[in-house]
C-alpha cells in the first residue's frame, strides 16, 4: 500500500465551514477553511433557481419554483458531507422575505438541506455583504458597497470593518426583468420605465448617502461582475465600470431589439434574460448617487457569513452591540433591565438541565428578552408588551435573523398579564416551541420578582419542576406573609399560567 502523505498541522486543525445563500436568482454554496488567519475557499457550487420568478401577484411562491429550490438543496446536502451544524450557515434573502408561503416552504427546504435556514432582513443582508467585502480587501478609504441581487439591491457605506449606513431597496434584476421587460423587447420605453422605477426607489436614500459621502465605490455579485466583463469586452478598462460604459452597452442592447438577439463577449447564457434589468438598475444608481466609477470585489454575502463562522468577526459581539443600541434608542431603564436579566439567569440556572435549556442559545435569548422587555414602555404602560413585540419584529437588528427576532419578540409579548399561548403556534419546530414557552415562564417570574424596581436580595425561594412540567416555587416559612405584595403578584401569575395550562404551584415550607 502506498504511503499516504502527511497532513500539515493547519489542515488537521482547520475545520471546513460552509455558507449557503438562497438568493432570488441563484443558490450558492461556498466551502472554506481558516488558514493562517485567512479565509481559504475550497469549493463553490452555484445553481440558477430564479426563485423570484416563482412569486405571483399575491406573493405566493409557485410549486415549480419550490421544486427547483428543493432539488438544488438536496444536491448541496450531498456536498456538505455531514458537517456539524455549528459549521454551516444557510440564509434566505429577498424572495423568502416576501413570499407569504415562505414558512411552509422553509420546512421542506430544511428537510432537503439537513440544516436550519434563516431568513435575514435586507439590512442584515447588506451588513453581511459589507463584512465580506471589508475582510476580503481592507481599504483605508470610506467605501460604498453595492450588490444588485435578483429581488433587491443592497447598499452599505463604511470604514474598515464598520458599516455606518445599511439599506436594502426593492429593485432586483429578476423582479425588474419580469416587470419591465416581460415582452423581451429591448426598446427605449422598457429601459426608461426600469430606470425611472429604480430612481424612485433610490430617492429614499439619495440625500442621506450623498451627505455621508464616500471615496471608493465597490460593486459585487453576479450582475455587476457580468457587466464588468462585458465592458472589458467592448473596450473599457478592466475591473472598472463607468457610466460611459453602461450607456454604450445600453445602446448596443437597443440595437439588438430583442432578448433572443443578445450576444455579447463576457456574457454567460444564463444571464442574458436579466442583463437589461440589471443594467437599468445600475444606470439609475450611477446617475442618482453621482458615481464616477465602480470597482469590483469577488467577495459578498457568503464571504461575510464565512468570516463570522470562523470567529474572526464575533457574531455575539455584533448582537450585543445591536441590543445595547436598541435599549438606548428606546430609553429603557438600564438598571431595571440589569435586575430582571440577573434574576432571569439565576432562575434559568436552577431549571436549565431539567428543562433542557442548558445551551448558549437559550441562555442568550432569555438574557436579551429580559433586557428588552420594557422596550414598549415609553409608548404605553398598559400595552407595553404588545408595543415591545412590534418594535422587535419591525426593527432591523444587526446579527439577528428574522426568525430570531420573531422569537425574541414572542418572549417580550409574553412577559406580563394573560399568557398568549396561541401565539407560539407560529413556531413550527415542537422542541423550539416548548423551549420558548419555558423561557417565557422564567422571564415572567424574573419581571415579577423585580416589580419594586430596586436592588434587593433574591427571594428566599427554591424553584423546581415536577413530572407534569409544573413549575413549583417553595418559599421559606413566613416569607410570603412578610412580602404581601409579592404574594398577591404570585397569586395573579398563578391564575394567568394555570388558565393557559402551564401550572404554577406556590408552597411555603
Automatic annotation (TrEMBL):
Database matches in Gene3D superfamilies: 3.30.420.40, Exopolyphosphatase. Domain 2, Hypothetical protein af1432
Sorted keywords for this record are: Cell membrane, Hydrolase, Membrane
Q: Does the keyword Heme apply?
A: no
Which residues are listed as membrane-spanning? Answer: none
Q: Which cofactor does it need?
A: Mg(2+)
**Topology in the membrane?**
Peripheral membrane protein
What is an example of a Pfam family matching this protein? Answer: Ppx-GppA
Record's superkingdom? Bacteria
Protein name as annotated: Exopolyphosphatase
Tell me which species this is from.
Pleionea mediterranea
Amino acid at each position: 500500500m502506498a504511503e499516504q502523505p502527511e497532513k500539515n498541522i493547519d489542515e488537521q486543525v482547520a475545520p471546513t465551514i460552509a455558507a449557503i445563500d438562497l438568493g432570488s436568482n441563484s443558490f450558492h454554496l461556498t466551502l472554506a477553511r481558516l488558514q493562517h488567519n485567512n479565509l481559504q475557499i475550497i469549493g463553490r457550487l452555484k445553481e440558477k433557481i430564479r426563485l423570484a420568478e416563482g412569486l405571483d401577484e399575491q406573493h405566493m411562491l409557485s410549486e415549480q419554483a419550490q421544486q427547483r429550490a428543493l432539488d438544488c438543496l438536496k444536491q448541496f446536502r450531498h456536498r456538505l458531507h455531514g458537517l456539524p451544524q455549528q459549521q454551516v450557515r444557510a440564509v434566505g434573502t429577498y424572495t423568502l422575505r416576501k413570499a407569504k408561503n415562505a414558512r411552509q416552504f422553509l420546512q421542506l427546504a430544511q428537510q432537503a438541506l439537513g440544516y436550519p435556514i434563516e431568513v435575514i432582513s435586507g439590512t442584515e443582508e447588506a451588513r453581511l455583504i459589507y463584512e465580506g467585502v471589508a475582510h476580503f480587501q481592507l481599504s483605508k478609504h470610506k467605501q460604498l458597497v453595492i450588490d444588485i441581487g435578483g429581488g433587491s439591491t443592497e447598499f452599505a457605506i463604511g470604514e474598515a470593518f464598520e458599516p455606518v449606513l445599511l439599506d436594502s431597496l426593492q429593485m432586483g434584476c429578476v423582479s425588474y426583468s419580469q416587470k419591465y421587460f416581460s415582452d423581451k423587447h429591448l426598446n427605449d420605453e422598457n429601459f426608461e420605465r426600469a430606470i425611472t422605477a429604480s430612481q424612485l426607489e433610490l430617492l429614499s436614500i439619495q440625500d442621506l448617502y450623498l451627505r455621508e459621502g464616500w471615496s471608493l465605490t465597490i460593486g459585487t455579485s453576479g450582475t455587476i461582475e457580468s457587466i464588468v466583463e462585458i465592458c472589458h469586452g467592448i473596450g473599457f478598462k478592466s475591473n472598472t465600470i463607468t457610466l460611459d460604459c453602461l450607456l454604450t452597452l445600453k445602446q448596443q442592447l437597443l440595437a439588438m431589439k430583442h432578448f433572443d438577439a443578445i450576444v455579447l463577449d463576457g456574457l454567460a447564457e444564463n444571464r442574458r434574460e436579466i442583463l437589461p434589468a440589471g443594467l437599468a438598475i445600475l444606470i439609475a444608481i450611477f446617475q442618482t448617487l453621482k458615481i464616477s466609477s465602480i470597482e469590483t470585489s469577488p467577495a459578498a454575502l457568503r464571504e461575510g457569513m464565512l468570516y463570522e463562522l470562523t470567529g474572526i468577526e464575533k457574531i455575539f459581539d455584533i448582537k450585543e452591540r445591536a441590543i445595547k443600541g436598541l435599549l438606548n434608542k428606546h430609553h429603557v431603564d438600564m438598571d431595571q433591565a440589569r435586575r430582571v436579566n440577573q434574576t432571569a439567569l439565576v432562575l434559568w440556572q436552577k431549571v436549565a438541565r431539567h428543562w433542557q435549556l442548558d445551551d448558549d442559545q437559550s441562555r442568550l435569548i432569555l438574557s436579551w428578552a429580559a433586557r428588552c422587555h420594557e422596550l414598549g414602555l415609553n409608548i404605553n404602560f398598559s400595552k407595553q408588551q404588545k408595543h415591545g413585540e412590534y418594535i422587535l419584529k419591525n426593527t432591523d437588528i444587526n446579527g439577528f435573523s428574522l426568525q430570531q427576532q420573531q422569537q425574541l419578540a414572542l418572549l417580550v409579548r409574553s412577559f406580563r398579564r394573560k399568557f398568549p399561548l396561541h401565539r407560539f403556534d407560529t413556531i413550527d419546530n415542537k422542541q423550539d416551541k416548548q423551549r420558548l414557552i419555558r423561557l417565557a415562564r422564567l422571564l415572567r417570574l424574573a419581571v415579577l420578582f423585580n416589580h419594586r424596581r430596586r436592588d434587593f436580595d433574591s427571594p428566599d425561594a427554591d424553584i423546581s419542576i415536577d413530572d407534569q412540567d409544573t413549575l413549583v416555587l417553595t418559599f421559606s416559612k413566613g416569607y410570603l406573609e412578610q412580602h404581601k405584595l409579592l404574594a398577591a403578584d404570585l397569586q395573579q401569575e398563578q391564575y394567568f399560567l394555570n388558565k393557559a395550562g402551564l401550572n404554577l404551584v406556590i408552597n411555603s415550607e
